[in-house]
Amino acid sequence: MYLKQFFQKCHKGLTKLLLSSVLCSTITFSSITAYADVDYEAEMENRKSLPIQSNEIAGWPEGPAIGAESAILMEMNTHTVLYAKNIDEKMFPASTTKILTCLLAAQNCDLNDKVTFSKAAVYEVPRDGSNMGIDEGEVITLEQAMYGVLVGSANEAASAVGEHVAACLGKEPTAKAFASIMNEKAKELGCKNTHFVNANGLYDENHYTTAFDLALIGCEFFNNEILCKMSSTPNYNIPPTTTQPDDIWVNSKNKLLKTRELAYPYLLGSKTGFVSQSRQTLVSGAEKDGMKLVCVVFKEETPYQFEDTVKLFQYGFENFKKLMVDDYETKYSMDNMDLFDTGSDLFGDSTPLMSMESDSYIIVPSTAEFEDTVSKVTYSKEVDSNVIATIEYSYSNVPIGNCDIMFSSSLPEQFAFSSQDETPAEFSSEAANSSIEEETSEGQNVIFINVKKVIMGILIVAGIIILIMIFLSVLSSYNFSPRGQSSKRRKQRIRDNRIAKKNAKQAAKRQRQQMKRNKKAYKKRKHSRFHRTYD
């Protein structure tokens, strides 16, 4: 049994050696012809004189001169660009492509999935390139394959992972289908100058990206703890199983990892890359004092890609700082919004309805203050969003972060009311997403009201009532039928006649009263004359 396995391994090794020899002889000859006369050290020195765009920003810390043709340092959450050197130049990413391959795998598949290596995955990559030695038909877990990709930079493993992700998403398990998924994801992350054609980064003139775009991908990659763990692992073992007979060890060539020559203590993870057309490439993430940075270095010579990365991380951590918006912002205080304040406990809480996002921060040079920033407000157009508006900050015209104004984080959609006996029982849980929800807590009913939708509902109802009142008023003032007009005139004549009769009665009454007064006056005068005669 053991002899059989021994001879199988020997046969496999000899086959790989022969294939590698043939490929190497062809590739080595062409490489010597194409690159023998190139002085890469001299080119690297010349690249140090290339302009650094971030050094041209007023009040911005001056960044180091490095031998990379293109490089960027980006803050991970605000996407603030701290260092920029040809960041929009299209470059060949080589194996740094594999961070997107594994990001898609982590987001769309289960790490315990079984990955079967297809003929295309095994034989459509060069045998002299980075590989794990997996054969067609062999099966390992997705987690093991991803370690092979991120630690050993195995090309056939990257292809197999890509095919598996495509199948997970219901697409054909091919390199082309996965490349389409990669491009969709890159666009979703904000990449504008990126196009991928394979999962492993092997050279193709249509396989390119920029330092800025790869940094955006890196921001998402290094925010994933599992991917950080994988990409910071120096070596990894895949033991033999019934579906994969070899004891496989993969080792990283990354000098920034722990126990390595240039080990960086704040490293989150890192991925190397190399093809002759791209030279050395490197994408890395690091965190110090709560600040997380992504660094991308394109077209450099070894080991300077590692040294450049350390220089840029040190530049970022030493020359920039985080400022929590909630601690400094005064121009957009919520105190003047008394209409929406629940301080009277009407809603069972004294929290303002609107507030600033408490964990938002901006990145500024260490010598700058919050007052040195410029801000503007943009209002949200999404009806279903909890965000009302966003304050966008800049420093010397460089975007440095933003802060959302939203409904209170403690009461994002709802307010709690103590339920009394007279509270209607018709409030159902189904209405939670529209306006009202009833729950039981510690034997007491609690009603939650979606304030935004309730206010909108009140406004709509009020508007409908106003329209109805206007309509009824119009109807009472106008009658459009001729018969109705005659009836109206007849009623008016009756009213007029009644008024005229009333007025006539009142006039006759006044006349009788006047006659009585005249009669009394006549008698009084007559009596006076009689007494004057006989005195």
SSE layout:
Blueprint: H1 2-35, H2 40-47, E1 70-75, E2 81-85, H3 98-108, E3 114-116, H4 119-123, E4 139-141, H5 142-150, H6 155-168, H7 175-188, H8 211-221, H9 225-231, E5 235-238, E6 248-251, E7 267-275, E8 279-288, E9 291-300, H10 304-319, E10 320-324, H11 325-328, E11 354-356, E12 361-365, E13 374-379, E14 387-395, E15 398-407, E16 414-418, E17 436-441, E18 444-450, H12 451-477, H13 482-534
Report what the structure shows.
It is a single chain. The chain is an alpha+beta fold and 535 residues long. The chain has 3 domains: 40-321, DD-peptidase/beta-lactamase superfamily (Beta-lactamase), CATH 3.40.710; 329-407, no CATH class; 419-474, no CATH class. The chain is 40% helix and 21% strand. It contains 13 helices and 18 strands. It has helices spanning 2-35, 40-47, 98-108, 119-123, 142-150, 155-168, 175-188, 211-221, 225-231, 304-319, 325-328, 451-477, 482-534, and strands at 70-75, 81-85, 114-116, 139-141, 235-238, 248-251, 267-275, 279-288, 291-300, 320-324, 354-356, 361-365, 374-379, 387-395, 398-407, 414-418, 436-441, 444-450. The protein has a 5-stranded antiparallel β-sheet, sandwiched between helices. Strands 11-15-14-13 form a 4-stranded antiparallel β-sheet, with no helix packed on it. A hairpin with a 7-residue loop joins strand 13 and strand 14. Helix 3 (98-108) packs antiparallel against helix 5 and helix 3 packs parallel to helix 6 (155-168). The longest helix has 53 residues, at 482-534. The chain is elongated and about 155 Å long. The N and C termini lie far apart (173 Å). Mean pLDDT is 82; it is low at 1-8, 14-35, 336-348 and 409-449.
